Amino acid sequence: MIKTFTRSGVRFQYPTNWTMDLDEADGAWTATFQSPETAFLLVSLRPDAETTVQVAEEALAALKVEYAELEAETAIDNLAGQPAVGHDIDFFTLDTAVVCWTRCIDTLGGPLLVMCQVSEFDRARQEPVLRAVCASLKIDED
Length: 142
What we know:
Blueprint: E1 2-7, E2 10-15, E3 19-25, E4 28-34, E5 40-45, H1 52-66, E6 71-79, E7 82-93, E8 96-107, E9 110-119, H2 123-135, E10 138-139
Antiparallel strand pairs: 1-2, 2-10, 3-4, 4-5, 5-9, 6-7, 7-8, 8-9
């Protein structure tokens, strides 16, 4: 089964067996989605940020605080039919390799950050799910 997340003109589908938590303040919000395994998705609307590049760099800086030896490459991609900037990131935690990617796009409400993360433990099963969630992302243009 599939659930649909909708907020501030942002819409996407995610598995029903994933848990969701929503935090909001001053027009900004962050929704986190956790799979029953290690896959993790964060979607955050940042009306306070000036650019998508700023949000992508802030997300990378926050990850570097937690994982000092991470490796990251700048990524330019398409998400929800528009240009997206972010990073492809690899790091280790608890002796487990983790793959993470961030993408940021503009919305009418401000920059939107999408961050996906999964460990090598269940990457073969969960990365395609994360990719499908990202592919289902739609942004209202009005």
